[in-house]
Structures are given as C-alpha cells and as structure tokens.
Amino acid sequence: MRTRHILFAGLMALTLIPACASEEQDFDSIEDDQSEVAASADDGKADAAPSSWTYYSARRDLRKCVSPLCGGWFVKRVNQTWTQCPGTPGGWTTGDCYVAEIATPSGIGVGDVAVLKGSVASKVFPNFGNLRQFKATEVWNGLGTAEASGLFYRVNATQIYCITFPCNNPTTETKLNSYLAPRSIFGINLAPAAAAPEDEEAAQAQLLTRDGLIAQGDHVLSQNGFILNASNFFIKAKAELPKCYVGGCSGQVCSDQPDVITTCEFRTEYACYRTATCERQADGACGWTQTAELRACLQSPPTL
User: Fold this and answer.
1) How far apart are CA 28 and CA 217, in angstroms?
2) How far apart are CA 148 and CA 195, in angstroms?
3) CB of 253 within 8 A of CB of 238?
4) Which residues of 29-53 are buried (b: 16+ CB within 10 A; e: fewer)?
5) What does the pLDDT read at residue 304?
6) Which of 17, 98, 116, 218 is the most exposed place for a label (fewest CB within 10 A)?
7) Would you kindly state where each structural domain of the chain is located, as residue ranges?
8) pLDDT tens for each residue of 160-169
C-alpha cells in the first residue's frame, strides 16, 4: 500500500478540527513588509544554511508574443504581499514580476511551476532594452497535479516513527520568507497534491534530507497537533552531471570526457572492461562499477 501521509501516531483514526485562528494567524497568513529594512533582511539571511529567506514562486509565461517580451516567467516572493521588481513604480509590486529569463546553476532545469531561491535583477537584452532576469541559487520543481493554494513551508522529518500515543513530534515546519521560528507539527499529508506514486516517494526521501521538502498548503488541527495538507510539493533540483564515456586505445578508460586517447599497451585485463559498466560512482566520479564478475575477471584475466 502506498504511504500518502507522513504522520507519527501509528494508524489510529484522527479527529480533525478547524485550526485555531489565534494560534495560526502568523503561520497561516501573508506578511506585509515592503521596506528597505525587509529587503536588507532578505539579503542578510540568504547565507544561512538552510535559509528560509529569498524564496519566490515561479510559473511559466504562456502569452504569445515576441521573446523575450513574452515567454519568460512570472515570479512572486512567497508568503509576502510585496515583491521587489526593478523597473516598476517604486521598484515593488503586489502582483507578479515578469522576468525574461531565469539564470540557474549549471545544468539545472526549471519546471512549469517552481520555487526559486535568489533575486530579481535588471538585464539589458539586445534590441529589447532593459528587462529583468531572475538569478537563482536553488531550484525546487513542483510535482503535484492538483490546483495549488496556501502558503509555502519547508518541512523536515526524521526516521523516528512513533507507535504509542502521545509521542514527541519529529516533524519541523519553517515558514518561508518569515522571521517566525520553526515549529513542530504532527505531520504532512501529500495526498491533496495528486502527485504520481514515484513522486510521493521522492518527496518522502526529500523530507529526510537536511534541505527538507518545500510544500504549499494549509493546516488542519488534529487531536495530536497540526497537519500540513500539501496542495503541491517541491523537490530540490540538482545539476545534471555529464554522462560517462568509454575511451582509450583498448576501451579501458571510463571518464566524463568523450574520445579519451591513450597509448596502446597490451594488457589482458583490458578485455574485462568489454562487458563492464561505465557510470558515475558514489563519489560522483565516472568509473567502472566493481561487480563481483569484474573483480573476478581482473584477478584472473582471460588468456588471449
């Protein structure tokens, strides 16, 4: 059976009641801090690891007109009323900010709906003048298929699962772009996002990492604590490393460089690599996967 809930009280039935406004008014409300002080605070907190600041939602611009005037992205600072948008009156907007392109770390692609960490900057595009670019340091791609709503949070969990009641909560929630301290919640429900089973499994793995999982949604209050109902969730994208290539005079070299040239010494163990697998290893480098068959062959190379 597929696990669709990250909850920590066994399989007991939960009684859900509306979230208390007095307790939730900070975590479940948009914040309004249009000021240079707030902008500076964003910059100052951006170096914290993992930081909850300088996050933007991004959605692809589907308008039909000449690129780069259309076809870029609409970005908006999450959980905040105002978004810094160079070139607009006062440099801020309460709506979306159009950017003609998103600059990401090498090899990272941006999905149709994403959360980005970074900043909006002006950029001159030849023949079109001064437009805007988003400079992203992190890309989180959305995997849900349902219509998303709610605020954005970073959720971290551990592998400690409670089998008795009551129990200490191992799930932590941090509101993005907010000064509020992280808090414990009872769990996160991924089902409302209507994601594919494999994407839910990836989200559960992401929850256990230091970066955690970014989720958009709202809360319900159970008898055991708050649960975040995720209408969408976002997986941190990683740079795609170059593929591995087989090279060398006898096909004995596995590297990330195509057409590697070597001298042509004759060694019987080189024949072992003809059926071996050249791929990235645990340390990220290209190399021959050391299967039992390959190790045995290298110890007793075939006689040619």
Assistant:
1) 9
2) 12
3) no
4) eebebbeeebbebbeeebeeeebbb
5) 63
6) 17
7) 1-240, 245-299
8) 555 454 455 5
